[in-house]
Amino acid sequence: MPRGTDCVSNVTPSGVPVGHRGGVRCVFRTILTGCAVLVFAVGGSVAAQPIVDVRYEGVVADLMATPEGLAFLEAFRAIRRDYLGEADASDLLDGAIRGMVGALADPYVRYLDVDQLAAERRTTRGPASIVALSLGDLGYLRLASFDSERAGDSFAAELEILMQRGVRALIVDLRGNTGGLVLGGLQVLDVFLSEVVLGYRATRFGQVPLGYANPRAVSLPLAVLIDRDTASTAEIVAGALQTSGRARLYGEVSAGKGVGQSTVPLSHGGELRLVTFAWSLPDGRSIDGWGLTPDMPLRGQVAALEVGDLVRVVLEPELDPVLAMAVRDLRRVVGDDLGYGAGSAPPIQAETSR
Q: Domains in the chain, start-ordered, CATH in brackets?
């Protein structure tokens, strides 16, 4: 599975925040409160007893009740009191959070400090990278990732332009797409599916189906391209389209990342990406560890082709056998030569970012 991919669920399809927002904030404050409790317990110089927020009393009690919890507090107190060098409390506690995340040994759990989070937000709030072009009356859309908050809306906007140009069939290229925000993926599915379950989201507290009812869903013939790097949200999209019978998949078995993260804001401005849910396909099958098996298995290009090369694939299929096969099959479905003859250059729309 590709490293560093995220299937982040920061909102539900209705826009309501999800995830257990207080989880790590609770741990962070618990550490501070627990340290205060220990100071008073061992004879600190302040006479008044500390006030413990009632929300954290149980967690503080759990921390104080374990040898490991006491050992942490003892170590923190000793470093602050006796260490000869400089020991900044913020740095120590930041390291403690990183240590907790590392102890989970889960490649999909991440801790982002203030600076890291600011850098990532510039990506999520930036434009979505989409290649949209028309090959006669065949439309092609390549979505590089779902990292941008605008991915779903940008995809729909580019598709609308292609439909205004009269395309009669579509290819959606998700090769190399390692995922991103779940909401963007659900928005893409909403374009193509009507009144169906898009998948199931399972947490520690149960499993719920997610679905939309879109009577105006696009009904054009559809092919989806995937490869070994297609993961997370991209697999949710491709898997739902395949399982519902809406599209055929072309390419390689996908990565198989069927778990997702919820964002947990932290009091100091950082954020935790905590694995909180697993995703299964509309028929109940799990993606995690298995991936998606294409209807037409074929290995093609690993690196994304430039726009000019994409156009040449129609005339030179050896450049990208996967894309060429999808073009061939859709030609058969729409029953024509896609509006141009051999040796002529089809009209294209240049690469865009929205």
A: 7-12+123-353 (3.90.226.10), 23-111 (no CATH)
